[in-house]
Input
Amino acid sequence: MLRAVAKAAAASTRRAAHASRATCPSDRLRALSTSADASTTATEGEGEGEGEDGPSAVNRKLTESARAVRKQSSAAIGQRRDTWGWLYDLTDSGETAERWVNGANARLSDRVKTAMYLMHKEDPETWTMSALAKKYKIREQRVGAIVALKRSEERFVENNETLYHDLETLMEQSYGTVDVGTGERHVTDVPTTPMFQTVSEYERGRDARPKKFVEASELARREEKILVREFFERLRYNTLETGTNLNRVSRRASAPRRPEGGYALHVTPLGDTPLEPYIANKDGTQRALNDDEREYVRRRTPKPRRRIL
Output
């Protein structure tokens, strides 16, 4: 008897599968979801007492589980939890999200910032950005930003403009200050998993060598050199030290007026030629690029290098 029932169920299953393959995908999904709901309802209904249908039993279980989770969360309120941190700590200082050690580098006192600017102003050859970064244990980019802002503040003082020193004092009182950083530096992570490379005997023969492994400290030093150079290039441009006469307003928002006689053309000779890029005027004359135009070309030229995240 049981064998006959099993054979009949298998035959009905095969017929249902054949019919589902003959229908469109949406009808097939609808039929599968309907059968799954029906089976779930039948199963839940069988396990409950009389007078309670399947959906009511499911809702009751969901309510009970939600009540249990809420009870556990209420009991955990007020208890001391373990301090959670970052996935990787590359700073070697035990830094976590609740213990931000390197955050002190952004809280140098205004007195220290002024001293840094005056030292660089009086003797720029001795107190370079790198020397100041080593003395105060911060990165060169932060030193460059501090010196640039202090230089701007000096111009405001000369022009008798209003400076909000009271706000600076309140910020220092609220968050605290430090006189020396915590050894801020750029770090990087080098993967330590094995990297396999398939080498063909006909392509490289016996001269095949694996790629040279670079230590994390050396890779961080190379990346930091690139980051410092690009930071100071952008800083000089943003502080109008380079590209002084370049238009920094969006051409879509404020299009420049067409000059009299038309625009000049920037020509870049192609091929193997010693000619440098030049400006060709409408009357047939030409001239070399000035400093602003060379800065504009440099900023628009892509820099092929390894992506740094």
